[in-house]
Amino acid sequence: MAKIRQSPKQPAEKRRRELLNAAKRLFVRKGYRGTTTEEIARAARLTKGALYYHFKSKEDILFALVDFMLDRFRTAVEPLAGTNFGPGEFARAFLEHQAADNFREFRNLLDIWVQSMRIPRIRKFLFSHYEDALSFFELHLDPAFGRSTAERRQIGIVTVAFIDGLAARLALNPASLTLEEQLQVFTRAMNTCYRFTDSRQNVS
């Protein structure tokens, strides 16, 4: 078997990215548990020494992939910081950003996310990110939605659940629905719900 030669001129960040891309392909095809670090290094055309220079373990590689996945969410909603948005605008920010990247890619990341949930350290990290997303939502949600922190949080939970569900459906079968139509329906439903709540409160 030919020995893989590692070029000393290859930038460290490029090596790291190649290792992550190779790991993602293998995790999707063979599963996290069914993939070895040796296979990842070979798929990236690097040595195991190069792999362990960048990552202490296979779990660290998976952690980095999950962090990359979550970074997409951060990037998508970042423009909303400092503004007052409605639930529909929050959902649109992420889903349209994801559509630009391709929902088929999201399907791969979703599979990796499921595998990650079996690892306590990564599950804790995911939960922490989820809480950060809800805090961001509570802080910037338009005052017309929700009169208390608890109510705003519940709206946030429903909105994030809508985002996750719709993204998963589009990843599985993009032709099964239209993103724009679903966003419009969700926005109307949330707006109607809270206009109704406001009128009911005014009557009382």
Descriptive notes:
The chain is elongated, with a radius of gyration of 21 Å. The protein starts with 11 loop residues before the first helix and ends with a helix. The protein has helices spanning 12-30, 37-43, 48-54, 58-77, 87-101, 103-116, 120-140, 149-172, 179-203. It is mainly alpha-helical and 204 residues long. Helix content is 75%, strand content 0%. It contains nine helices and no strands. Mean pLDDT is 86; it is low at 1-7 and 198-204.
Any key phrases for this structure?
single chain, 204 residues, mainly alpha, 75% helix, 0% strand, disordered N terminus, disordered C terminus
Topology:
Elements: H1 12-30, H2 37-43, H3 48-54, H4 58-77, H5 87-101, H6 103-116, H7 120-140, H8 149-172, H9 179-203
Helix pairs in contact: 1-2, 1-4, 1-6, 4-5, 4-6, 4-7, 5-8, 5-9, 6-8, 7-8
In short:
75% of the residues lie in helices and 0% in strands.
Taking the alpha carbons of the first and last residues, their distance comes to 80 Å
Overall average residue pLDDT:
86
The percent of residues in helical segments reads over 70%
How would you classify the helix and strand content by structural class? mainly alpha
The helix/strand order is HHHHHHHHH
Strand content: under 5%
Low-confidence blocks of residues: 1-7, 198-204
